[in-house]
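FAQ: What does a ligand-bound record look like?

Like this one, built around XIL:
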Amino acid sequence: MPSRRTFLKIAASSVGLPIMYNSMHGQISGLRYRAAAKNMIYGAATSSSRLRTDTAYRTTIIQECGIITPEYEMKWDRMRPTATTYNFTDADYIVNFARQHGILVHGHTLCWHRALPSWFDTTVNRSNAEQFLRNHIQTVVSRYRGQIYSWDVVNEAIEPRDATPYHLRNSRWYQYLGENYIDIAFRAAAAADPSALLVYNEYDVEFDDNIRRDAILNLLRRLKARRVPIHALGIQGHMRAADRAKLNAHAHLFRQFLNDVAALGLQIIITEFDCDDRSLPASIQQRDAGVAQMYGDYCAVVMNNPAVVGFITWGITDKYTELNSSAPRADREPQRPLPLDATMQRKSAWYALEWWFMNTFARPQRTTAVTNTLPEHMLISELECAPNPAIQQARISFHLNQPRYLHIYIVDVQGRIVARLAHEELFSQGLHRRVWDIDPLSCSQGLYYCCISSSGNTVSIPIVVVR
Ligand code: XIL
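The answer part, i.e. the structure of the complex:
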């Protein structure tokens, strides 16, 4: 089985690979290549039945997507026909399809209050819930070990309306296990596949709901404080064209939220973007323009944050959007929320994404989710950096396995030292933090590396400085 690293190489090298294709078939223009050129990932939710039966659709997914999310196949109600059995057929199909085409997989989802099988409520209870959760995650994550780029480990755990302490959703999982279910899920996933990027996935972080945003941030902070292995926040991004003005009016809050998440050392992936067009008139031209404006305005916030490394749409073609069933238009016209129309033609929304991928800055190359997969001989683990461009500081943290004298310094892309944070200084075993005060005069916008050296061994982490 190719490892996650191999997948990443495929994704990255595919920037160059299809050039031959280009001259022959004009296929290089897929969004996956535009994204990969910036070390970002573009992809879409998909389903095994559509991949199996619709050839034009299948070809489109291969051309456009660097990552795919199973829209249904990895949910409990599809994988768990009974309390003691698993059905992997459709999930296997998606994972195999992805591997054959050098596409990454975003696994969705290991723990959610919805899509639970019918036997769940009569079988799972307070005394066996932990066992069920652990077994499920251990079984599913190990089956696909090394083949899933990122996992939505826990989905939608915050619900302020449920009025619990910390605003956690009063789900079955919460009722049975309390907040601890989240720790259990992440730790079980990390144990079963140490190389997967582990994601907490949420929605409704874009507008005026500060209580919700704060609850999410505080949850992430508690998880980090308990050293729960979490690597990224997934932001679903289910938008409505009607909310464009609201999005723009609150963009400063959304932007601040992204900065706060990044400051925790987490990556960010937009995981389920689409744009419900119910508020727009029937005219296709007007709808496509309105939807594309939403794509553009949303990207104007998220693409400018270096922590945002992926953008996944909830489907790629209007032909299969779930909004026709969950949010049908009053005039019964089919919704047009996705980058491609029902005949796989590119719409303005596709061009909005293309524009942003072409004009955003390159992200640092990421070969691992976090550096705790470094070779054993390395003394330093969990090296992370949370750039915070707003205050011109980058916060670097790492864990040292034994006391050591360390050098900590920042180099530019030519290897020139631009700052020294520690010079032959004795560090104790444990977690350490250092702040790099970025000098605006000597450090322009761009890529830098924070290096930590100890007796000849150096580990480094990229830092993007944004002005
Ligand atoms: C949705 C699917 O798209 C629908 O077809 C299904 O009926 C319900 O689930 N947030 C999530 C996704 O995390 O799994 C949901 O997907 C949409 C909301």
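Follow-up question: can I read anything off the structure? Yes, for example: Residues 71, 155, 236, 272, 322 surround XIL (CB under 6 Å).
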